[in-house]
Design brief:
Blueprint (H helix, E strand, L loop, with lengths): L2 E6 L2 H5 L2 H6 L16 H4 L5 H7 L4 H5 L26 E9 L2 E10 L2 E7 L12 H5 L14 E2 L2 E2 L2 H13 L4 E6 L5 H11 L5 E5 L6 H5 L15 E5 L10 H10 L12 E6 L4 H4 L3 E4 L5 H13 L9 H16 L4 E5 L4 H13 L20 H13 L2 E7 L3 H4 L3 H8 L4 E4 L13 E2 L10 E6 L2 E5 L12 H8 L6 H9 L8 H11 L1 E2 L27 E6 L13 H5 L13 E3 L1 H6 L6 E7 L4 E8 L7 E5 L24 E3 L2 E3 L1 E12 L19 E3 H6 L35 E6 L8 H9 L7 H5 L8 E11 L15 E7 L8 H5 L5 E3 L5 E3 L9 H5 L6 E2 L15 H4 L19 E2 L5 H13 L12 H5 L5 E5 L6 H9 L4 E2 L11 E4 L1 E3 L3
Helix pairs in contact: 8-18, 12-13, 12-14, 15-17
Amino acid sequence: MQNRIKYWRGIEELENTPEFAKHAHNEFPEFLPVRETSDESASNGKTKRRDFLKLMGFSLAAVSLASCEAPVRKAIPYLNKPVDVEPGVANWYATTYYQSGIFNSILVKTREGRPIKVEPNPSSSLTPLGTHPRAQASVLGVYDNNRLRTPLSKGKVAEWAQVDQEIVSRLGGTTGKVAFVSSTIISPSTKQLINEFGARFGNFEHVTYDANSASGLLSANGGLVPGYDFSKAQVVVSINADFLGTWVAPTVFAKQYIQNRKVTAQNPNMSRHYQFETHYSMTGANADVRVPIKPSEEAAVVTALYNGITGQGSAGNVPAAATKALAAAIKELKANQGKALVVSGSNDPGTQAMVAAINNSLGATGATIDADKPYYVKQGNDAAMIRLIEEMNAGTVGAVFFYKSNPVYDHPLSDRVVSGLKKVPLKVSFSERVEETALLADFVTPDHHYLESWNDNEPRRGSLSLTQPTISPIFLTRQMQDSLLTWSGNKTTYYDYIRENWRKIAGSGDFNMFWEQAVHNGVLETGVTLLTVNNNFTAASPVAKPVKGGAIEAVVYEKVGIGTDEHGNNPWLHEMPDPISKVSWGNYVAMPQRMAEEMELVQGDVVKVTTAGGKNIELPILVQPGQADGTVAVAMGYGRKLESMPVAEGMGASAYPIISVVDNVLLYTGPVTIEKTGAVSPIAQTQTHHTIMDRLVVQENTLAQYKENPKEVTEYIRIATKEGPTKPATISLWEDYEYKNHHWGMVIDLNSCIGCNACTVSCHIENNVPVVGKAEVLNRRDMHWLRIDRYYSAVENEDGGPADFERPADNPSVIFQPMLCQHCNHAPCETVCPVAATMHSSEGINQMVYNRCVGTRYCANNCPYKVRRFNWFAYFNNDKFANENYMMNSDLGKMVLNPDVTVRARGVMEKCSFCVQRVQLAKLEAKRENRRPRDGEAVTACAQSCPTEAIVFGDMLDPESRVSQILAREQGERAFHVLEELNTQPNVTYLTKIRNLA
């Protein structure tokens, strides 16, 4: 019986619900209310278009003349121009991004002294390719108007001299323990300085805790994160570890992992990846074999792996759905000694100890695990933090300092933290804003943003990097390290302190030359180590307790975009859709379809989730395909109620109360009860706005088929003619373009795209794309020029039944597809524009002339790829978007805008331009040197930010370019165009995804 693959974007499309069928073919659906209004016609969601225009202050004339409403720009020349600043010319600085475990060595682009863009640092061996989405978006934080501008004393503005005097005075009379609480610090100089600061006190402790802890992993591995190397693994088994998205070092791991996933006819080999997990993670979406399991079944799965590999014991109580996959995984792991790797995201020390034993049995140490190069990006000690909380409540702590830590918000024992802080005489926070813990502090001495700071870093043993300021401090803040030096009576600046610390590794040569070279490169990777990690972890022992039968198991996970809490006021990351759920602006209760049906819930229904401890949160549900049966999942990092975070204020609910504390270990799961409240809260979900109508959009095949015949893995459309079947491109009414100089094109390898959305955020920043907010996303007006389409799929038999599960939504496969303007040579949009606002360049780029566009939207209606975006509002200088789009609605926020790209006005159409400003810059630089641009000099923002090189851009007329070489190699094999039957002849080519099925 033959099988076929069925694709769908969401449950509503899979089941063709009446609501979906109603809107599937409606290009311009009925509008939802944009903002709260007393007008009944707007609030009932049935507003007519003419009434809507009147309501929002439009007129027909305003719409038709919107392109004339360009913002007024004023330029003021320098009185005394800085030597290193040339107007219109970018400067680049090597620095380092590190926050909540995410590390990136980066280059920061500055214009006229303003940092505006983050790119990867090719000098780094750890992250030479691409960036994490959070690293991309971090540049906006420096322009956040809600950062503290001065220190605070008892909540009131104070002078630095006054604050310093009071803190020093009160420290001098401190009795009891002095504690310094921080998240993981990877700076050798900072850790050394903290220890020197604490040496002045009789009883001092530096406590490290992470909101998303890896304490169990550290306990099982001597206080260090093993030096995992996925590039050397032919078989990877992951149990609830989202190592491509959020676990330990995802940017590093993505680069390693994809090295064994790129296939060619000359090298048709790839690794095999098994994933056992509860919620559908980005890593699970990339697995060859994925099995949903409950958190309570995790230990059984690991035990079965251990027993199967070592031959000790039986398989145990393994979930039935995992039996087949476990047997296959054990067989392959044993057959790949020294080329296999098992990882777990569990925080249970006993589970992690068993995983370490499995890797030891597989000969991973010295092969897929480099014992000499552990990672330092996770150092949090759960037991030490819990002990400190109890000491505060006992009244034995005299002073406590909080650095990049916010336990009042993100620790499950938050109530105990609050009660304990009331008994501590001196509380100091270094927070950049008034957050939950800072509200209870006696003094808030705001730290610089990292782009205003000096620092050093050692994310992995022997890999050093530097952080250097790219802008002078905007506010009257002070770097935390300089504050410690001041309170210690040390007049040395932290910059000089780092230099002195680095003299020990400089050797006997000229230190100034050594230092300047290190600052210029941003990295120093000679194998020398500076960081000393002294975490006293207790011996690993199992702590997970069995869950009562029938209880709903909840898991708390970290989103790729928002993280734990540190980016709550960053609208770029809120607007970024989650890779799997495609939800932006808020969290939700992810629930399997079966459970939703049994509880008579539909997506958007608000439920009350009550923990075993009696705490409860209320959130809407999202029906999530692939969620393990009997479980729900909630993302951390939401539920903020702070005026200092207006972007996140009131959005979602905090998931931290769900976390269980067992034997001084945080377990990110717990039993809950769920109760329907009767309320409804719509979820802002992208991509489900249109149907693919069974058209051939994405393509995939198996590795076995690829090895058998590479030319049969891709389906090509053929048209019947008198001469026989032929390609659509051979029959056309168009007069083809002749490209004489350059022909720019792009190749996107679906095998390499992991769905991380770094390209989406990078494009957003590079091209001044506005943030529209939740209400506008609900109205289907998201403005991203590039999106990552996520398609679910399941192999069905001819009778419609899936192979392993009762229904397709139980455990579908996922395929990611970056979708942007295809820059068609036969562009449907160009033929229908009445004013020639969209036109074709002589180099193959579909261009938008904004000041011609009158907003007819004919082009969007005629675009089969749905990649054109219409400006419904003037998003800049608009009070309606003051919070969620503050980079365009405040003088400070506007400093992040790219001056090479115009800010579009209301009523015009916009879309991907292949970063034409970058193309032109590369051409101008080449012209100055009287040569052609070299391959790699013109790179789009999406391609440059991709950590797996899934996107390759270049000149298709240059036979030496990577694009040309890939197209020549893959033509007739994996290369295909989306909707080829329409004969639009795109300049974007995709490569078929290959799955290494077991």
